[in-house]
Design brief:
The complex is a heterodimer of chains A (174) and B (176). By secondary structure, chain A is mainly alpha-helical. Chain A is built from 9 helices and no strands. The longest helix of chain A has 22 residues. With 176 residues, chain B is mainly α. Helix content of chain B is 70%, strand content 3%. In chain B, helix 3 packs antiparallel against helix 8 and helix 5 runs antiparallel to helix 6. Chains A and B meet through helix 1, helix 2, helix 4, helix 5 and helix 6 of A and helix 1, helix 2, helix 3, strand 1 and helix 4 of B.
Chain lengths: 174, 176
């Protein structure tokens, strides 16, 4: 592991390549980037394994039945690609505490776990209500100049800015 | 595995590498953006969108692809968007970047993904109530900016691209 490989790639270049990748994906497989639908399909499958009769009464899960599809493999691929890249570059790090979090809130497992889980609930719920996440509404939506994409992406950031301000306060200490 | 599934896996791996090496999957980058102190993810996203918009509309003009636009419902787009944003700031990852963050060893991303599954289950219960009342307001269907403004897509692509470049230029000037 040399130090050079730890230097982050330029976000403009990496972003532009991600844009090309998104276009290639549409051209070759006909699939636009997205991620949150998979959480609905998996959530329904998980709940269905415990409460099959109840899930059958839920219109939403009937709309999104579980299936092994492009998007599920896309998410698996993201995790695998990130794993490989972090191993190659020596940036893999098994931790529950992001640096910024640790600096502000310390290393309480309970505090970080509850916040992450609650944040996940709101993010999962909100993305499904909005009809997409920063991949589907943000990247894919704006690439198509979709009106729902602009509205949702602006609201993602507005909601995020408000809550970040509440939990971290206004002052920034690096 | 068929071609579609392989396509998803390979695209995901490449996207995961790009996001991991540019660090946009990190909590510090994402919360840094909503704290308005580190706009790395905005640089990444707007660059992808700039390239992607031109590419998508070019392929569409060549008749090679069709758009796949999500429906606009102002009520759920706004309310869901704000709720998502709140959760995103608490967790520090969105659904796609949570998978990437898990790949580089971030256990809190796994906890967050469990929360997202729970959030989707709760939404399935609430779904009927989101189809009526104020949440259903502003249902305009699958519309794009060119549809709404009745303008040539390429003219609008030049317009939005200039806005994106102006935002990026401002971020460089502000050094965030």
């Amino acid at each position: 592991m040399d130090n050079k490989s730890r230097i982050a790639w330029n976000p403009y270049l990496a972003g532009a390549l991600a844009g090309l990748l998104a276009v290639a994906s549409v051209a070759i497989v006909g699939k636009f980037f997205g991620a949150s639908t998979t959480f609905a399909r998996l959530g329904g499958a998980l709940e269905g394994s415990v409460l099959p009769q109840h899930v059958q009464t839920l219109a939403y899960f009937q709309k999104y039945p579980f299936k092994m599809d492009w998007q599920l493999l896309f998410l698996v691929g993201i995790a695998a690609g990130s794993f490989m890249a972090s191993i190659w570059s020596g940036t893999f790090s098994l931790t529950l505490f992001p640096d910024m979090w640790k600096h502000r809130f310390g290393t309480s497992v309970v505090k970080r776990s509850i916040t992450a889980f609650l944040g996940g609930i709101l993010a999962g719920f909100g993305a499904r209500m909005a009809g997409g996440c920063p991949s589907g509404h943000g990247l894919s939506g704006l690439m198509q100049m979709s009106v729902s994409g602009y509205i949702s992406l602006v609201c993602f950031f507005l909601g995020g800015i408000i809550i970040a301000r509440i939990i971290y306060g206004g002052r920034y200490e690096a | 595995m068929n071609a579609e599934l392989w396509g998803g896996l390979i695209t995901g791996i490449l996207f995961g590498i790009l996001m991991q090496r540019s660090e946009v999957i990190r909590y510090d980058r994402q919360v840094g953006a909503v704290r308005l102190v580190d706009m790395t993810i905005i640089r990444f996203m707007l660059s992808a969108i700039l390239v992607g918009t031109v590419g998508i509309y070019q392929l569409r003009e060549l008749g090679m692809i069709e758009l796949s636009v999500k429906g606009t419902v102002v009520g759920t787009n706004v309310a869901g968007g704000l709720v998502f944003g709140a959760g995103w700031a608490l967790l520090g990852y969105c659904p796609g970047t949570a998978a990437g963050a898990l790949g580089e060893g971030r256990i809190d991303a796994l906890v967050g993904m469990a929360g997202m599954l729970a959030g989707a289950m709760i939404f399935a219960e609430a779904y009927p109530y989101t189809q009526t009342g104020f949440l259903a307001l502003g249902n305009y269907g699958r519309i794009t900016l060119p549809d709404v403004l009745g303008a040539d897509p390429w003219l609008l692509i030049v317009g939005v691209s200039l806005i994106y470049l102006l935002i990026l230029y401002t971020l460089e000037k502000l050094k965030v």
